[in-house]
C-alpha cells in the first residue's frame, strides 16, 4: 500500500502526523525487507520485534482514531503475532534452522 499511490504520498501522510518523513522510508524498508526475510526464515526474531514496534506506532497514531473495525484490527492481529515469533524464532525448516542443522552435522 505504501508504494501503490507513490511513496511521496506516504511520506506526506507521515509528515501530517507530525512525524519526521524519514520514518515512512524506514517503516517501508522494514515491512518489505522484513517480510521477505521472515518468509525465508532469516532474522525472524529481530524483524518481529521491529514489526511489533511499528504496529504499536500505527495503532496509537492512526488506528485508535478510526476504531477497531476498519481501523486497527489488522495492526492488532500482527501485534499479537509478533511476540510469538520473537520468542520462538523461525522453525526447523527455515533458513536459520537449516543452517543450524548443517553446522551441527559438520562439527
Automatic annotation (TrEMBL):
The entry's localization annotation reads:
Cell membrane
**Sequence intervals crossing the membrane:** 47-64, 76-95
Q: Give the chief site where it resides.
A: membrane
Q: Which UniProt keywords apply?
A: Cell membrane, Membrane, Transmembrane, Transmembrane helix
Tell me how this protein sits in the membrane: Multi-pass membrane protein
**What InterPro entries would the database entry show?**
DoxX, DoxX-like_oxidoreductase
Q: Pfam families this protein is in? A: DoxX
Of which family is this protein a member?
Belongs to the DoxX family.
Record protein name field: DoxX family protein
